[in-house]
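User: quick one, fold this
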Amino acid sequence: MSKRLTRKVNADDHVLGPADAPVTLVEYGDFECEHCGHAYPILQSVRKSLGTRLRFVFRHFPLREAHPHAEHAAEASEAAARFGGSDAFWAMHNLLFGNQDALEDDDLLRYAAEVGLDARAVDEALASEMFAPRVRADFRSGVRSGVNGTPTFFVNEARYDGSWMNERDFMRALLDAEASSERSVAARGLQAPEGPRSEPRADT
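Assistant:
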């Protein structure tokens, strides 16, 4: 089973933070997952602490059998992204994790209106499963990367198997990743490019 991120972060992802940040943290999460709910404030804290040194990426991994509302919650967040852009996605993301006990479709439409979306358009998108393929694409990429529960984290493309519940340990792992990234950049900078080789001149 893979312990590396098989789908690199790309333009289709939901991203907070600069592309050149030394640490990229990818979460595969489920909006109805209690553990993801517990991880949410910890992630907010480490993001605040690291600032522009961290790029955070959220990918969907709804566990539909255990969490019957997770799929539509994920699709509603994708509707927010499509109809309202990145800011609307993250506003919906925050509302969903802040209201995990209220994820019926009527609740999702209310949150959509709160973030400035046309609730009727979101309702139609949910009914037609417009964004189900987008959610499934994230899910499949998680499976290929060895994800089998939520939340699962990848730090600079390597799966993090330590404790995220202990914020101090989690932060230490991110700082270690930052230091490793900076050492790699420094090492590449010390490798001077080879110049053109001169051919030996034949005696005349």
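User: anything notable?
Assistant: The chain has seven helices and five strands.
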